[in-house]
Each structure stands twice: as C-alpha cells, then as structure tokens.
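User: For my dataset I need records formatted as: sequence, then structure tokens, nothing else. Please produce one.
Assistant:
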Amino acid sequence: MGLVMSIKKRRGLGFRDLQYFNEAMLAKQGWRLVNDDTSLLTKTLKAIYFPNKCFLEATIGNNPSHTWRSIIAGRNIHARGLRWNIGDGKSVRAWHDLWIPYQPGFKVLSTNPGYTDDQQVADLMRDDAPRILPTKYALMKRGVDIDPHCSRYGLDIETPEHALRECPWAAFFLGDRDF
C-alpha cells in the first residue's frame, strides 16, 4: 500500500481511497457494457448473464464469476445517477423506471390509475391521457383548489399536452429540445 497511497511528490500514485477508486473502475466497466455492444467482453457477459435484458436490469444469477459479481457491485453507482431520456416513450416503463426529473426517487409517486405494471410512458402520451393524468388542470376540474398554470413557467395551463409535449422543460427531458 505504501507507494499506491503515497502522494505523488513522494513517487506514489496519489490514491486517497482505494475502495472508491475500485468502485469507479468497476462502474466504468459497467458503463462500457451499456455503451459498447461490439466489445468481446460485452458480448460474452451478455450471452452468459443477461441475454434478454439490458445490463441495468441484469441479475447476479447463479454461480457468477468474480468479474461479473464485481461489475454488478459497481453498477450501483450508475443507479444513483442514471435517468431515462424519454424520446418516444416506448422503451420506458411508466411505473418502474427512473424518468421524472426533480421528483423524489425519480419515479411516479401516485398510484397506478388502472394501467398494468408494464405500461410505457408512450401510453401516457396517447389521446386518452387527459382523463388519466393528474395534471393541475384535471385536478382543478375535479374540485381541487389549485392554480392550473404550469409550475415551471406559469404561463400555460398544465394540460397533458402541455405537460408531456409543449412545455419547454418537459421537451428537454423527453429529448425533443436542448435547454
């Protein structure tokens, strides 16, 4: 540990905490599994441990290798910071995935209004969404004493169309515009 933990002026590597360094390197390997489908490591681990899922949904499985167990441990770093970019909403599960910015836990907190657990965000953007989504306008129409204007900008009424398509803030997170 002497040279590894020593400061660089004393010919050391300058690491302050090897545990954090190790976690960062494992997280980097996990990030490569997410972003580089062509690498031999990605193809091998995917074939063995998560053939029908993405890396972020993979389980540790039965009898995992030390490499796989370590990379899964580093994946927790990703879980603390990754959020979905919605796009068309067809690959994001509305009730399970982390996709709502500035929401505690980044998930939908309300109960599921009659949808199935595997419902996608795209389904919330359908034409029948006005009767389902609890927007400020919908809540006001149901008798809740609330200002129906968008909380972010305050100019437009917060309808489902505004909340999911028209609001610049929503458009940024849905991947339609740069902020």
